[in-house]
Amino acid sequence: MKLGDLEFHVLSDGTFRLDGGAMFGVIPRPMWERVAPPDDRNRIRLRMNSLLIRAAGKVILVETGAGDKFDAKRRDIYALGLASEGPRLPEQLAARGVKPEQVDIVVNTHLHFDHCGWNTRMIDGNPAPTFPNARYITQRAELEHARHASERDRASYFPENFEPMAKTGQWSLIEKDEEIVPGVRLIRVPGHNRDMMCVLLTGGGQTAMLLADLVPTAAHLPLPWIMGFDLYPMETLENKRKWIPEIVRSDWLAIFGHDPNVAAARLRERDGKVVAEPVEVC
């Protein structure tokens, strides 16, 4: 899809599954299971979407999925790597003609395992950067938190996904909102954790917003539908109050990070509710 001179594609690292109750927080199961049917282990199916962006002469990858460094136990817990879900992120990049060494910038909205797994791959038994020529960008405070996570969220951070770039000097850490190239702006949106970011793409008079884990799926558009995983749910609520009406009012394209069926949509207000009208992007 093109926004003026900026071009982007929504790619995917496939699907995984998380506990449905945790994904919908205080919302009772009889309500959320209508829109996200759980399996026999109470898990719902989610997708791990990434953005491949070409802008200002740069190749930019936003989010890198879960990667392939999971042991059998974790693969079972999260239902990762199912062959039926199709090609993973490296194969999808290759299908777009992008080799790992051609990626200039990698953006992680935050460093939970399902957003930064392909940051690295195993080489001779050790994790090493998958994209050897790229700058890796995240919030400085998010990297620090990942290194010193609390008991509540420590299980979401895997050092092998973020420490190798410290050794190679590839981290380019930011401390506020920042436009990394013309038309690609990173916006700090606390709630899911303290320093998660969303991504704003602009060009040709159009705007698209990757909502990351602020609104992970279209089912999370209602204001109180907030994940139990969120460390600061009241900040999530306030940011949803801020950004969802702006997307509706300005007719931006909303891009969901985890919806298994709807990668992107126009948001419309109907009968007092915000609904997603899917838009095909490739």
Structural notes for this entry:
It is a single chain. This protein is an alpha+beta fold. It has helices at 20-24, 29-32, 72-78, 89-95, 113-116, 140-147, 163-168, 233-250; strands spanning 2-3, 6-19, 43-55, 58-62, 105-107, 120-123, 126-129, 135-137, 178-181, 184-188, 197-203, 206-210, 253-255, 264-270, 273-278. The strands form 3 sheets. It has a 7-stranded mixed sheet with strand order 9-10-11-12-13-14-15. It has a 6-stranded mixed sheet with strand order 1-2-3-4-5-8. The relative contact order is 0.16.
Quick rundown:
This protein has 282 residues and is an alpha+beta fold. Helices cover 21% and strands 30% of the residues. It has helices at residues 20-24, 29-32, 72-78, 89-95, 113-116, 140-147, 163-168, 233-250; strands spanning 2-3, 6-19, 43-55, 58-62, 105-107, 120-123, 126-129, 135-137, 178-181, 184-188, 197-203, 206-210, 253-255, 264-270, 273-278.
The total domain count is 1
Bin the strand percentage: 25-35%
CATH topology: Metallo-beta-lactamase, Chain A
Question: Could you report the average pLDDT, rounded to the nearest whole number?
Answer: 97
Query: CATH superfamily name?
Result: Ribonuclease Z/Hydroxyacylglutathione hydrolase-like
**C-alpha geometry:** globular
Per DSSP, the total helix count is 8
- Please give the largest β-sheet: 7 strands, mixed
Percent helix among the residues? 10-25%
Q: What topology, given as strand order, has the largest sheet?
A: 9-10-11-12-13-14-15
Per CATH, the architecture is 4-Layer Sandwich
Low-confidence stretches: none
Rg over alpha carbons: 18 Å
The helix/strand class is: alpha+beta
The H-and-E topology, N to C, reads as: EEHHEEHHEHEEEHHEEEEHEEE
How many E-type strands? 15
**Amino-to-carboxy terminus distance:** 7 Å
CATH class: Alpha Beta
